[in-house]
Amino acid sequence: MSPVPERSAGTGLSHPLVERLRAAAPILTVPVLMLLALPATGDPSAWVTLTLAGLAMGMMIFVMASGLTLVFGLMDVLNFGHGAFVSIGAFVGASVMLWLSGLLDPGGVTLHLAAILPAMIAAMVVTGALGVGFEKIIIRPVYGQHLKQILITMGGLIVAEQLIYVFWGPDEIPLPRPDALRGALVFGDVAVEKYRLFAVVLGLAIFLAMHLLLARTKIGLLIRAGVENGEMVEALGYRIKRLFVGVFVVGSALAGLGGVMWGLYQEVITAQMGMEIMVLVFIVVIIGGLGSVEGCFLGALLVGLMANYTGFLVPKLALGSNIFLMVLILMWRPQGLIPVAKR
Amino acid sequence: MSEPLLTLDGVHTHIGHYHILQGVDFSVPRGGLTMLIGRNGAGKTTTMRTIMGLWRASRGAITLDGRDITGLATPDIAQANVAYVPEDMGIFSDLTVRENMILAARDGEPKDDRLRWIFRLFPALEKFWSLEAGALSGGQKQMLAIARAMIEPRKLLLVDEPTKGLAPAIVGALIEAFGELKKTDTTILLVEQNFHFARALGDDVVVMDDGRIVHRGLMADLAADEELQQNLLGLSLEMHQ
């Protein structure tokens, strides 16, 4: 047998340090953006506040986008209706919180958080269950037909919005945060908003849980393999369609959870909130690399940070800053930050 | 003579508007290695994919060990103890060698003795056990694809052009590996263009042309008959690689 190279052809001539830097480059984009913003803001305490706000926003977008990227990667499905689960999740969560409003009256931190937890769980259960129906009725008939997927999932989104009007009425609903998550923790000159800290911790916990699931379990292996080559997963004897339904349900439930988080962040919910946030969600999925959870996480952090820094530094550019970010990243890495090998 | 393990009876396959397989009939005897050869575009890969359920037979019947598998879904056919190595190897590049093997071992963790046997045949896989499969060379990827199919004993192994684009030294290693696999009484159906490989391993041979079977017989007989080779393939097998 011929001697085997340590790495594939094309990597042997580079210096190992250069190789490592190249591999770490997507991860380094987040700290680099943070460092670039430090002198631009000019004020360290403002920089900390903006950075935390950006990370919190990024984590919430990640929670909403992670399911979408896996659904696209696994079954090549463009689900423009994903925003429906964000809106429905927010409304279900708000209803549960209003129902439990007694617990939200002035009281201990435990009580307040105890009201948010059932709201989030209810939002996830309802949107997860709706995901089963959405996949069966709307997605399944259009597998492999991208144009039809776009049209029918957009239709699904519009129907979902109208159903929200039917059940909750046409007005926006205020969703005040519990007292325990209002206000800020002050460290010297730096004020850290409690809810943003909560969003960062929750988003990070969800990312770590997803990472462990994908990296350490057989189901995770099957999902990663299915994203790359679904046909071969079936040829190994696994039913990828069942796996897809499972991922779709989890993705829908996460979108619902993201809807509750986003609603509490904005302190108001509307039927259109899902459609509005989808622009950022798609930017995140594209710059992260379609089908990549790690890429989606990095993309979400970059989008959140960029939106907050430009909103502070050049407010007029805030709206277009993430499009600019997407263009820059796609010029550098056309397949996204962490591309998934696709057959 | 025992019943063949696999039988294709008048199998037709359409892909879109194209009628690719036009009544394919042949059998694969148990415990042997049957070579499926033919010109490019003859329908060899379509035959393999149709057996595996990746493309549906529009007519005809496919029988595995007495059971009709014609309309079964691909996972059901795989669970009927069939392993498949596609022409593009089907390696999961983002997964490590170990993770690729774990997925192939449907019945749980790969057995130690089986792994040792595979590592003896393909030492590179042990060396690169924790490396992403996408970083392997072409030959190593092919070894992984075949090792994945061998990780658990299978009734039938379908392998599509394993030597395509590989260096002669790697082809030698694959001949050795398939030789070892033959000793385990695994039934193998192998599509191949490399004559040396086909002659070294094949017990039986089936020749396809234009979506039909044009010859069935012993590999040794075809290898010895240059005129027959010219008639069937348009050139001698020595040239056919």
UniProtKB/TrEMBL annotation, chain A:
Keywords: Amino-acid transport, Cell membrane, Membrane, Transmembrane, Transmembrane helix, Transport. It is found in: Cell membrane. One of its GO terms (molecular function) is transmembrane transporter activity. InterPro entries: ABC_transp_permease, BCAA_transport_permease. The keyword Transmembrane applies. GO terms for cellular component: plasma membrane. GO terms for biological process: amino acid transport. The chain crosses the membrane at residues 21-40, 46-72, 84-104, 116-138, 150-168, 195-214, 243-265, 277-305, 317-334. It comes from the Bacteria. It is a multi-pass membrane protein. The keyword Membrane applies. Its main location: membrane. Belongs to the binding-protein-dependent transport system permease family. LivHM subfamily. This is High-affinity branched-chain amino acid transport system permease protein LivH. It comes from Oceanibacterium hippocampi.
Automatic annotation (TrEMBL), chain B:
The keyword ATP-binding applies. Keywords: Amino-acid transport, ATP-binding, Nucleotide-binding, Transport. One of its GO terms (biological process) is L-amino acid transport. SMART domains: AAA. GO terms for molecular function: ATP binding; ATP hydrolysis activity; branched-chain amino acid transmembrane transporter activity. It holds the Pfam family ABC_tran. InterPro entries: AAA+_ATPase, ABC_transporter-like_ATP-bd, ABC_transporter-like_CS, BCAA_Transport_ATP-bd_LivF, P-loop_NTPase. Residues 6-235 form the ABC transporter domain. It comes from the Bacteria. Belongs to the ABC transporter superfamily. This is High-affinity branched-chain amino acid transport ATP-binding protein LivF. It comes from Oceanibacterium hippocampi. The gene is livF_9.
